[in-house]
User: Which sequence fits this backbone?
């Protein structure tokens, strides 16, 4: 007699890479072993998903959980629990805001150990590219870094300095030879200083601050980064692109043969600059939220397939850092990973039939992320043999989101009161429920470290020496 399944998710509409199907999903040993209608065999646990949709677990490739060192800002346990509540089954933690920042193999190992102790979801870790650490990229690759992140402007913390063009060039050359991706925060430092100086003398309010971070900062930086990526043959990922013009620049670079992908964040698709003025500090981020016209333009790029991935850029800070009479002095970062994906789904299903909308979103939130970062053999889609990572989404009924429900260490965020049609009913990580019906599952955290496959073998033929 065959072994019973560990888990059967019954009767949901399952969003597959090829389309959607009403089926059961059987899991054993942390893997999906069968997807088929009316599976007859027994399982130790059954979940009724009838009337609901089952999507691949969201892989949030952009979070700042700030542990070790600034755990009081968020931390891996509350951060990963919040992400699980939002449908996430894995995150890639950014190298900065934790202390020490991840700029060498030892600091990466330190963060990995902390996450293995307390993460509710699987995780990968970004290494940092900062001035003077190009020789550390190899050791970080060997330690399992998912890619290398650089800031083209001030990062907001002194210990993670901006990468100038020379640093980017040296880092990208090295990353290319290692077969690794470099991600950039694309805002030009020189222009940021000029615009900030111009505006800060005129005012300290939200509108003056918005004027200090115009789209030209982003466009200038994207031009620089794509040029250097083309010159060095490095794979480039531009994080949190906030404008359709930025997406278009990346598309043009791709047309010239540059290996570049584009991430945006739910907040650029859900909120605009009037919302920053209305909501205040919880909606302050870098780059800032844009005009309604640009928000809609970003949706057009997304619908046209010019955006590759969507990550939350969850970047919390203690309440004291989100308060000041001078809007310029307030910490820039939106806490979003718990509610942003439900709202993104809500917005997407208002534009297209549910199955089609979820199929398209699933590519952006899971499959494309997995493929770009070399983990697609285990993660990112629902198929037999893949890790049993999934989220059960309920689209029946509506509710107003409340900051009181947030699992973040600090219950602040820009979506309080916003109506969501999507509700994450359950999140399953490798066959184990991590979150269901408003609660994080009992039991010890069991997050596992994810390593990119391409890092195991150096690139066969680097396109440039
Ligand atoms: Zn970020």
Assistant:
């Amino acid at each position: 007699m065959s072994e019973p399944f560990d888990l059967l998710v019954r009767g949901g509409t399952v969003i597959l890479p090829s389309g959607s199907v009403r089926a059961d999903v059987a899991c054993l040993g942390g893997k999906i072993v069968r997807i088929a209608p009316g599976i007859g065999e027994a399982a130790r646990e059954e979940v009724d998903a009838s009337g609901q949709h089952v999507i691949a677990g969201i892989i949030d490739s952009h979070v700042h959980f700030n542990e070790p060192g600034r755990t009081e800002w968020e931390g891996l346990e509350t951060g990963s629990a919040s992400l699980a509540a939002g449908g996430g089954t894995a995150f890639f933690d950014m190298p900065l805001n934790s202390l020490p920042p991840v700029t060498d193999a030892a600091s990466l190992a330190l963060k990995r150990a902390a996450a293995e102790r307390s993460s509710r979801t699987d995780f990968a870790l970004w290494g940092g590219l900062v001035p003077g650490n190009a020789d550390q990229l190899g050791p970080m690759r060997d330690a399992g870094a998912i890619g290398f992140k650089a800031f083209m402007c001030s990062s907001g913390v002194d210990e993670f300095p901006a990468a100038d063009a020379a640093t980017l060039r040296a880092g990208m050359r090295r990353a290319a030879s290692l077969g690794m991706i470099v991600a950039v925060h694309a805002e030009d430092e020189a222009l940021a200083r000029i615009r900030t100086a111009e505006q800060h003398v005129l005012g300290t309010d939200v509108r003056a601050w918005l004027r200090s971070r115009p789209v030209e900062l982003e466009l200038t930086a994207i031009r620089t980064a794509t040029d250097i990526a083309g010159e060095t043959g490095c794979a480039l990922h531009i994080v949190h692109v906030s404008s359709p013009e930025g997406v278009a620049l990346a598309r043009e670079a791709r047309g010239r043969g540059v290996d570049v992908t584009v991430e945006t964040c739910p907040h650029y698709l859900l909120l605009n600059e009037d919302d920053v003025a209305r909501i205040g500090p919880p909606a302050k981020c870098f780059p800032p939220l844009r005009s309604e016209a640009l928000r809609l333009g970003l949706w057009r790029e997304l619908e046209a397939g010019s955006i590759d991935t969507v990550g939350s850029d969850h970047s919390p800070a203690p309440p004291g850092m989100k308060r000041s009479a001078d809007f310029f002095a307030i910490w820039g970062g939106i806490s979003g990973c718990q509610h942003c994906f439900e709202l993104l789904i809500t917005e997407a299903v208002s534009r297209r039939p549910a199955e089609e909308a979820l199929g398209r979103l699933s590519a952006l939130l899971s499959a494309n992320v997995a493929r770009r970062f070399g983990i697609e053999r285990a993660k990112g889609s629902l198929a037999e043999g893949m890790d049993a990572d999934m989220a059960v989404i309920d689209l029946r009924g509506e509710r107003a989101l409340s900051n009181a429900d947030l699992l973040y260490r600090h219950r602040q965020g820009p979506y309080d009161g916003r109506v969501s049609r999507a509700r994450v009913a359950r999140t399953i990580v490798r066959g184990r429920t991590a979150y269901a019906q408003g609660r994080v599952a009992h039991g010890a955290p069991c997050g596992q470290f994810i390593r990119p496959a391409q890092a195991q073998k150096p690139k066969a033929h680097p396109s440039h020496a």
